[in-house]
Structures are given as structure tokens and as C-alpha cells.
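Let us work through a complete example step by step.
Step 1: write down the sequence.
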Amino acid sequence: MPATVKNLIGGEWVEARSGEVFETLNPATEEVLGTAAKSGAEDVSAAVEAAKAAYQGWRLTPAPRRGEILFRAGRLLMERKEELARLMTQEMGKVIAEARGDVQEAIDMAFYMGGEGRRLLGYTAPVELPNKFGMAIRDSVGVVGLITPWNFPIAIPSWKSLPALIAGNTVVFKAASYTPTLGAEFVRTFQDAGLPPGVFNVVSGPGGAVGNAIVEHPDVKVISFTGSTEIGYSLYARAAQHGKKVSLELGGKNAIIVMDDANLDLALNSALWSAFGTTGQRCTATSRLILQKGIAPDFKEALVERAKQLKLGDGLDESVDVGPLVSAPARENVHRYVEIGKGEARLMCGGQPASVDGKGYFYEVTIFDRVEPGMRIAQEEIFGPVLSIIECSTLEEAIQINNNTAYGLSSSLFTENVNAAFQAIRDLSTGIVYINHGTIGAEIQFPFGGTRGTGNGMREAGQTALDTFTEWKAVYVDYSGRLQRAQIDTEAVLGKDA
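Step 2: predict the structure and record it as C-alpha cells.
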């Protein structure tokens, strides 16, 4: 790991204009990993200027050539996968197997979006008049600003940057404050793959100073943000004042529904993975478990027994199941919600901060029972290893409970009844629905995002990601050799002049 993480601006690695730095910590050991540039508005302005200067050349680079660079970046990510995964575990804490999966998502996205360089689908349609042709094509927008979180420090930047780049835009990327090294190393991969200087710039620093400067800069045309709902909506309002296009991917309060006829071993394994993978620090994490009453007693007993067996520790140890929370403030926030839960429901296991060898921001795997749908721990995003169990009598009741939150990202149903499965697919009002799988594990070729307070209707991944980073251009070619007036000339078309 480099001693100091610098910004990449216009193809050069540079310190913050202020010369200030901040420390990065390993959340499992609390050791200082290094320092990173503590940037501000001046650094953002320089990055935007570099991106603006590079835009014309990149926009006019044929899309298949842009795709070839993305393919090369994907191959470099493959070569560096283990190195990046180990760095990820050190910098933000997720266990090494999950860190490898995080990098793999970026590899998949690089190859997928590289292929879009030979597609970038528009469409043709019939037109009203003779000897006239019409089509709709995608056009780039200019400089885009990307603000990403620390919990998927390679995958989420790839979901945003790769569609932006293949569409012909240039990028200013704010790396998450907890993972600046990973942000810099991700962008370095594209530099090494041959991306022209200024096309992909990275700036590290505090969210307030750097993020606000990106949002408010007049030359940044699109903002893509992943983070908390509160911050996202505030950003959305400010960006709207400047007429910017905004994509938001925000919080979640996801639920797994387990019916009496479910494969219970599968549901149990899925619930443990979905609730406590990444220490619950996923927007898709399962934080509510809705159990039909027939199987609830035995399922809860088995769940608690298995949860108590999960091993906490440094994620570089392959035997560890659950790593630390990302920081001391994150652990304090989780504990605050657990204390609220103790006053609302019954604590079945966990409920306390923990450490390994006296170090780290660990928290015990925590499960609450006798939770009512309206309780705070059943409504508010906790972002930690905390699972609330709610019982229900019918599928209809379970679906109602699932849908009755401020969020709508991911939901899951376990059943062997195909009719129930299709009823759930129809009625679960979330952007992602799983049948006989947990709430996590999205694939990059499908839209990612949610309803209600989870976002603003935009989607990441798949071809839908291109909608954020392109504008539609309608093109008409009239080869009749005379003035034809759409709508007005309808009778002429149908009459003798046709």
C-alpha cells in the first residue's frame, strides 16, 4: 500500500492543493494503513477542468475502441484481483471471500460494458412521410460526477464509471473516505489499460467538501450517488437547483419471507448469509425475517444456534465469517439501534460491541424476536449485523409487511408453491425480487435499484445504466427532395401525392 494516496487529475498523481492528508485505518486491527489526500473544492475544480478538456477527444473516440480499453482494464483487474481483495479487507473489513467477489463484479462489468462499445443500442421506427428515415441514438453528456460508498469500494464504482466511460463521457470520481486507496487503485487500472489522461479522475477527501463541490460545479452534467437516503435527498435538491441529471441508490430495509412449505435448510443458510454477510453493511442486507407461524419456532431455534457459531475476526483469516464494522462511529450507531431494540422486542442473541484480541470495531451477531412491523428496528436502516424476526399467518400478510417500509430495494420469498412465487413476484413492491434465494447477490446484466426511499427511479447495471449517462437524440433524414411537413402533410401522403 502506498504511504500516501494521491489524486489522479489530468493523468498526473498529485497531492491535495492544501497539502493536507488524513489517515486510513484497518477496522479489524485499528492500525494506521497510510494517509490520503484531504482534498477540497480547488482539487475538484482541477479535476473537472481536466475531464472537460479530455471530453472532446474521448467523445470522438469510436465506441468499439473505448470498449477495447475497458476490456484491457477488465483483464488487469483479473490479474490484480487477489491484491485488490486483500487491500479491501484491510481497508474496510469485509472477509476475503467477499472481497474477491467485490472485485469480480468490476471484472464482469468491465467485460459487459466493453461489449456495449459495439452495441449502445438505439432504435429505428417507421416515420409518417415517404422518403424519410427516423432513428433514435444515444449521445454522451459530458463530465459526470460519481460519489460512491465504502462498502463495495470496487464494485459500485465500476457500476457507475464503466457505463459512463463507454458512452463517451469523462469522469470525476470521489473515492469513499474510508477506502481512498481502493478508489485510487481502481482508477490506476484504467490508466494502465491506456485510458487517455483526464478521462478518469479521482479525488479523495471528506464527503462534505469534495462531494458538495462535485454536485455544485457547473461543468458537471450528471451526478451518480450511492449512500444514505438523508444525504442522497439533500444532494438531489442541490443538484436540481443547477439543472443536473441525478441517479440515486440509497437505503434498504430488506426482508426474507419464509413460508411453511419452504426448503428450510436453504432458507436458513440464505438468511444467515443475507443478514450477516459484509457484517450487515449492505444496502441489500436482510434486516427483517418474516416467518409463517407454522415453522417459526423451529426456524428461530436453528437460526440462533447457527448465528452463535459465526466466527468474528480479521477477514484475512479464511476461517472468519464476520468481519468488523467499518469504524467506531458505525459501531456506535449499530449499538444505539440495538439498545432501542431491547426496549421494543426480545433479544435472542448478541447485542453488544465486541473485539478480537482487544482490537477492532466488531459487533456481536444480533437477533431480535417478537418484533412488530411498526417498531423502529423493523422500519429504520441499521446497517449492521442485526436481524429482526416478524411472524405472519399468510402470504398476503407477509407481502403487506414487506411493502410497508420507507424503502423498496430487495425482497425474497422461500416457498415450494409456484403459484405463491408468482403472486409474490407480482405483489412485492421492490426493485429486486428473489425466489428461494436471499436478498443479496445481484448480477451486473440486470437493473439494480429500488422503489420508494431507496432511490429516485434510476437504475444501475445492465443496459439501463446507460440511461443515466446518455441523452437521447432523435434523428430524421428526409431524402424526398421537397419540403414535407409532418402532421400537416398527412392528407398528401394518403392522396395522390403519396
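Step 3: interpret the result. The chain has two domains: 4-249+468-474, 254-435.
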